[in-house]
Each structure stands twice: as C-alpha cells, then as structure tokens.
TrEMBL record:
Residues 4-73 form the HTH merR-type domain. It comes from the Bacteria. Residues 54-84 form a coiled coil. Keywords: Coiled coil, DNA-binding, Repressor, Transcription, Transcription regulation. Transmembrane segments: none annotated. This is MerR family transcriptional regulator. The keyword Transmembrane does not apply.
Amino acid sequence: MNKLYKIGELARLANVSPRTVDYYTTLGLILPEKRTGGNYRLYSDETLVRLKRIDELKKAKYSLEEVKEELDQSNSVATDAQVADKIVSLRLHLEQLEREVHQVKPMIARLNPSQARNAFKHLTPHTVACIEALLVLLGKDPMM
C-alpha cells in the first residue's frame, strides 16, 4: 500500500512550504489521493515524485502554466494513431536533416582542424553535440 502524507509531511519531504503544496493543489498541479475523516488532504508517493518533477521544470525556467501542460501531456496515453503520426513526423524530420547534412558535408570537408575548432567555439554545446553525432553517422571522426 502507498504511504499517504498530510500537507506538512509532503512539504517537508519535497523541500517546499506547506503553502506551496496548497497553491499547487489549487492550481491543479497536484491532487490529493483522498481526505481523512477530519477533512485533511492526503497525498501519495506519486504526488511526491510529481512535486520533484515540478521543481525540476521550475529550475529549467518553465512557468507554472507550462509545468501544468508538461505534466498533463506526460500523463496522457497516446493512441496508436498519435504514435504513428509522431513516427511519420520524426521520419520526415530525419529525412530533412539528412538532406541538410549532404548540403553541409562539402563545407565541413574543406575545413582544416584549426578552422573547425575555431568554428566550434561559436556554437552552443548542444549544437556541437548534434554536429558531432551527425559526423559519426556519416562515418567521419568528430572534429574535436
């Protein structure tokens, strides 16, 4: 059986204030599992995990509205048609990336190592990782 927590216990475990738990409940970000005979709200372990996810999203600069959308989206179960649509969308995106790689490939090949390193200095780490992954997929060694 899942352990149930009163607001204060949940707040302490999630490292938030009881007022935050109350506010998130009001916004619908979290919901009590049930109520006691004295009308106290009781929250489950899943709520504790959800509070930690909310904290991660807030640290990533999501607004509370965006947090709610993200949590609602992650809780919804996709239908077969939605999954098929997503696969088609990803396949089309991959084909577009492959076309772009073939356009950029000659330019990359003409760069000497010092030029490549200099170019990489102006890119975000995420972009560099994507470029290096594409180079590996093309059978070339990463430039850095």
